[in-house]
């Protein structure tokens, strides 16, 4: 199926339209000015750990789509900055699990709050119907992200 095809013949959801809308929004969203300048990869690692708990380096490298040596260097920097900690894996003493610290969690929370402040004036310019449409789409978009995460495992 090409991205311009319908996701299901019984719907009017055009996957190409959805892809373009998500990409256009992401292009804006990831470039919002940030109080704290951190790389996209750093933020992604912290977010992954905050959402899904401690991970082995190999698993993080796979989910973040970066090389293991690159991830090891990043985790070393994050550990130095007290954003993550490494602990022995109780299931395998030879391996370590990377855990997010409270400081690492605060970065994600602060970034979401900061981005929210940027979105509020834009959302205020939408019509009530547009705001309702976005609110109605949130459960489906959340589920779509969950399905994508499950498929990546």
UniProtKB/TrEMBL annotation:
Listed InterPro entries: HTH-type_Bedaq_tolerance, HTH_MarR-typ, WH-like_DNA-bd_sf, WH_DNA-bd_sf
Alphabetized SMART domains for the sequence: HTH_MARR
GO molecular function: DNA-binding transcription factor activity
Residue ranges of domain HTH marR-type in the record: 1-143
Matching PROSITE patterns: HTH_MARR_2
Taxonomic superkingdom: Bacteria
Protein name, UniProt field: PntR
Protein's organism: Streptomyces arenae
């Amino acid at each position: 199926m090409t991205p311009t095809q319908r996701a299901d013949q019984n719907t009017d959801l055009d996957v190409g339209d959805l892809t373009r809308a998500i990409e256009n929004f992401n292009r804006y969203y990831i470039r919002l000015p940030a109080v704290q300048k951190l790389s996209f990869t750093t933020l992604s690692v912290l977010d992954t750990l905050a959402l899904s708990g401690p991970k082995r380096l190999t698993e993080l490298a796979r989910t973040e789509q970066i090389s293991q040596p690159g991830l090891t260097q990043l985790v070393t920097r994050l550990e130095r900055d007290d954003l993550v900690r490494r602990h022995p894996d109780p299931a395998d003493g030879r391996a370590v699990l990377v855990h997010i610290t409270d400081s690492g969690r605060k970065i994600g929370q602060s970034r979401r709050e900061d981005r929210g402040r940027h979105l509020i004036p834009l959302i205020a310019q939408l019509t009530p119907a547009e705001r309702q449409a976005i609110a109605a789409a949130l459960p489906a978009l959340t589920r779509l992200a969950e399905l994508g995460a499950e498929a990546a495992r």
